[in-house]
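lol ok so funny story. i was supposed to be doing the assay writeup but got distracted and ended up predicting the structure for this chain instead. priorities right. anyway since i did it might as well share w the group, maybe its usefull for someone
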Amino acid sequence: MSKINPYAMLLYFLPYILVALTIIGWWLGGYWTFITPVFVYGVINLSDHIFPQHPTISGVSQSKLERQEGPLSLYSFPPILWSFTQLCFIGWCIWVVTFGNLSTLEIIGVVLSVGVMAGAIGITFSHELIHRKHLWERLAGEIMLLSVTYHHWSVEHVYGHHRTVGTPDDPATARLGESFYAFMPRTVFGGLISSIKLESSRLRRRKRKAFSFYNRVISGLAIEIASYLIISFSLGWEAALTWFAVSFIAIFQLEVVNYFEHYGLCRREITPGRFEPVSAKHSWDDGHRISGYFLANLQRHSDHHLRPGVRYDSLKLVNGAPRLPAGYASMLLMALIPPLWFSVMNPRIK
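and the output, tada:
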């Protein structure tokens, strides 16, 4: 575990600025309701190009690095506290859109702002927590995924993606030449199917019925469907539609990030059905500082796949990992324009 620097630790609370910006934007109304996505994809993006990147570690063998997550520390609190924060601001969003007498422009702005927060920060923090050993940390991560109706991803990502990354069996590994718009339905539906299969296999090994409430995917889907019905009957269909829109925006951002984190990087098949071990070369890294504080070092993705049990503050930029040409915000926008994406990324892979 990395030594705690209280000043560095406070930088990982920067995502909470987005909550304040969203409230201020709603209070001012009009075009101000778009202040959060502008800040995320404009200000943070620009800051990444202004501040120098973190250096890649050198002279250290990956096998010598700590592989365990270590005990709880102050670094654990930014993602844990966000689970409660996310429930509150999604509930707030549903309320103000349904009963706040907002204009159509303001509704779009508020929903987009909350969706950007729930995806860029909420799912990123949930990604950190679902890898933890402490039950209550994993529970906090799963609650955040439930809040954007994507709970099954906690099963698929941890038990599926980390095992099959870079192979044809992984729905979250984008193929060379595959556009994001072709990748999106494949990863969404493929991930759901994979998570059901993973849970069914787990329960069969434990001599339990595969299709029961013990199945975490089925129980998660049941909770999500019940929540939509409760919101629809108690607050109206507009409230349910608002929650769906927030969830869609959050999931959309997650899958764009999934798209470029492993785009075109494949593990070599040694024998039929058996692939080389995961190494640093199978994930795209990024060393930009400011977005790293907002995304809990998600960009140090190669090290995360090599040491998935390690907390975000201990992740490193490792030798041998390919580097993205720009920060995550820029890459996300670039991925939405396939001709531009292919012209920038395909030569780097070849």
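The radius of gyration is 20 Å. The mean pLDDT is 91.
back to the writeup now i swear
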